[in-house]
Amino acid sequence: MRLRHRLPVELRHVAPRLATGAFILNSGLAKRGADEQAAAMMHGMAKNTYPFLGRLRPSTFVRLLSAGEITLGAALLLPVVPTAVAGIGLTAFSAGLVGLYLRTPGMREEGSLRPTQEGTALAKDTWMLGIGIGFVVDGATRGTR
């Protein structure tokens, strides 16, 4: 009897895992070399939305953000990480980004979810939230079919 090892990734998950994983990994790698001015800008926006982040120094915040993005990007790209597990990480990460979009003044048109020109860069993160939720739901319902 021959044992077959199966990766915890369905073929239908490959494209969205590659797209989100490469995007997030690249973002994390780019933040590794952030200077103090860039770190202060990223930290300022984050702490305005999530005040508990104000306890961190800007350089520490960006270092942690970079490490988190690199880890999440790698988890999405590596087929040994189950899609549901990677989906939980993607959902949590992208929910934080969507929170920035929803809670930062000037990102949305008044009384609407529609982004302003400035908000488009953050509004686009909703696609990652949708993919992450899809991965989690697929993983949760997989055994019920």
Question: Could you characterize the architecture of this molecule?
Answer:
The chain has 145 residues and is mainly alpha-helical. The protein has one domain (13-144). Helices cover 66% and strands 0% of the residues. Helix 2 crosses helix 3 (58-77) and helix 4 (83-103) packs antiparallel against helix 6. The mean pLDDT is 92. The chain crosses the membrane at residues 84-102. This is DoxX family protein.
What does the overall shape look like?
Answer: globular
Number of helices: 6
Helix and strand composition category: mainly alpha
* Helical proportion, percent range: 55-70%
Keywords: Membrane, Transmembrane, Transmembrane helix
Organism: Streptomyces lienomycini
Protein name: DoxX family protein
Transmembrane segments: 84-102
Keywords for this structure?
145 residues; mainly alpha; transmembrane; DoxX family protein; membrane; transmembrane helix
